[in-house]
Task: structure prediction
Amino acid sequence: MSQDSAENVVLLHGLARSSASMNSMATQLSQAGYTVCNIDYPSRQHRVEALTDEFVVPEMKKCFLDPLSTINFVTHSLGGIIVRQIANENPSIKIGRVVMLSPPNQGSEVVDKLGTWGLFEWINGPAGKQLGTAEDSLPNKLGAASFELGVITGNRSINLILSTLIPGPDDGKVSIEKAKLEGMQDFLIVPQTHPLIMRNSVVQSQTLNFLKNGHFQH
Result:
């Protein structure tokens, strides 16, 4: 990937968050010379397909007017599923390198256990209910990565109740195993929690390293 086509980065926040949660990441990337598009989208109001087509893709086209430009992504949680949806449904968009932070790439057991609760849907909306671990859940239907992908996930939790619903080590929302995706180039575990991983300085420097070099520093 040539450097001149590798300078555009879209940031996508997670479920029930806003673009403000990605502000410190945006600052670090901007200071490193990237042109950053930190997109805000109504994650609690629509299914993933509508969030992608009606909000994220139109905002990307406003940020980067050149339809031939390569676009990199840094995502948190649900944002990673949206990138996979873009890759599947918008082949004209040239995806460069992608760093996903705490992505439910194979779904989350939390959704399996609580997704039918009215309170869960009120907090997380229709997109949240799509993120279970069943074979026919959206994350598991989107397939392997078709782009250069690095995944960073955490092994600390500030929600021990939710962690009891998740087999194995987790970040309070997603297990380490379920964050992995077939076809990824690199994978990194950090001592961070799901809500705060994007603000960690080590995570931000590792994100930059992947965008520049296609791998993390182990």
